[in-house]
Design brief:
158 residues, alpha+beta, seven-stranded antiparallel beta sheet, 4 helices, Split_barrel_FMN-bd
Length: 158
């Protein structure tokens, strides 16, 4: 169903992909937009390793939710862990590409729990997370990308 990576020598084990998903704070999710155009947007996310799902949030209305409701297949990419190469000017970096289907978390208690975990990654304290959630949770939707396939590779940018 999913293609094998073309440059197989650059492929890294899945545990490297999971580490990068846990460490990074931002990535780009690509959705199927209107009239066949892709719709790619940067997002904050939380990777639940046990569930093998990426959680993110948004509002209850808008283009993102329309795209998801129309076709829930998506891809996601994040990259980082740059290392300066021996030549002193170019870098090695790792990237993860994820494919899967997006679902809205319908259970509000679970949505609150996952949104709190996501927010804890970005806010300096849980008291600040709770204050923001108290103000805005009723207007938020929590989504997850159920990972069907992911690859990780290390590339030399030069």
């Amino acid at each position: 169903m999913f293609r094998q990576m073309r440059r197989i020598k650059q492929e890294l084990p899945l545990d490297e992909a999971k580490k990068l998903l846990m460490k990074n704070k931002r990535g780009v999710i690509s959705l199927n937009g209107e009239e066949g155009y892709p719709y790619a947007i940067p997002i904050n996310y939380f990777y639940d390793e046990e569930e093998n799902k990426l959680y993110f949030h948004g509002t209850k209305t808008g283009y993102k939710v329309d795209c998801i409701k129309n076709n829930n297949k998506a891809s996601f990419v994040t990259y980082g862990d740059e290392e300066l190469s021996d030549n002193g000017w170019s870098y090695y970096l790792k990237s993860v590409v994820v494919f899967g289907k997006i679902e809205i978390v319908e259970d509000r208690e679970l949505a609150a729990k996952k949104l709190r975990e996501l927010a804890a990654k970005y806010y300096p304290s849980l008291s600040e997370v709770d204050a923001v959630m108290e103000r805005s949770f009723d207007n938020a939707l929590v989504y997850y990308l159920d990972i069907a396939h992911m690859t990780c590779k290390k590339v030399h940018e030069k």
